[in-house]
Amino acid sequence: MIKRPEVLSPAGDRERFDAAFRAGADAIYVGSTMFSMRAAPANFDFDALSEICTLAHGKGVRIYLTLNTLPRNSEIEKLPEYIKAAASAGVDAFIVADIGVLSYCKKYAPDVDVHISTQAGIVNWLSANEFYNLGAKRVVLARELSLNDIAELRAKTPKELEIECFVHGAMCVSFSGRCLLSNYLVNRDANRGECAQPCRWEYYLMQKDRQGNFFPIDENHNGTYILNSKDMCMIEHIPELVRAGVDSFKIEGRAKSAYYTAVITNAYRMAVDGYLQNPSDSYKPEQWIVDETRKVSYREYGTGFYYEAPEINANVSYEGGYRREWDVMAVVEKCEDGWIYIEQRNKFSVGDTLEALEFGKKPVSFTVTEMTDLDGEALESTPHPMMKAKIRSDLILESGALLRKQA
Q: Which among 154, 206, 241, 348 is least surrounded, fewest beta carbons within 10 Å?
């Protein structure tokens, strides 16, 4: 019997949690007010954490809390109460990178599972087994492993130990995210959730005695981005991941938008469900599902280190920014009497062709032929942020459906 792989989605705030939840995530990982590797998102205080745990558990969805920074001496005394409060909120697991934090989780919240973060850099079965002996329920493997490495690790670890791997999202130039570049350049510590991503910047060479005379480090006509990794996308390789023994498919991106979270979660949900209906080694998602991964903001895609060693394919992206070929225009509130009631996200106009995305369904295109405000006054466009409007259409769309437009 094929084990159902978990689709694990990121959420940096309540809007992104709602997006992952509606899009069909089996589990959602979040940060709280401290000890999280993503300091920029709003994250969740303990009241909010309790609220989303109750909501998630009502639908059988699990909540994992990141405790994956490397705390300093001055922070240790805050850990016991923090751990106990998170356990009381109802989290299903802690994601930790530090062995001391692991010991405190087992001491102060023994009934909550512990997952070992990718920050721990697990690349072999010996380390995985030792973390299991220390009480870990799951290991999140380093992104630098191949599928063959993962299969060997799976074969030499207890079947009760779960294996989680990143399958989609940003990659890091440093091993398992252990980077000091941001700290050195802009005094923002990547190991404490404040990475400024200087690996994505364009660089030039300057000779010391010729200040201001910059020389390009040519890789192509656009200059060089020698530290800039491609994004990972494994949506076309689900049978290989399952065969290697991966229990949880992790989507990177707690700092990404709610739209990104919704679209990518939905794509992997549909791809995994399609595989479970036809669990063959040759399974590929339908092309429109694969295309969904390119209807968000993304960098050039690759498959990380799953198939090739870094010296064979360095997975460097030669583009400085993100590709952004589609934008979300509105969120559907309801459909009634031949109208789609929406809340605007970006400006669009009468005559534009929009695509409606309902979770679990193939997108549908339609043209905006008539639009009014809620009082019935005709509109030619939606220029005001978050404005409410109505679009004439016979489509019946569910609440929360997304309307987007190709750029």
A: 206
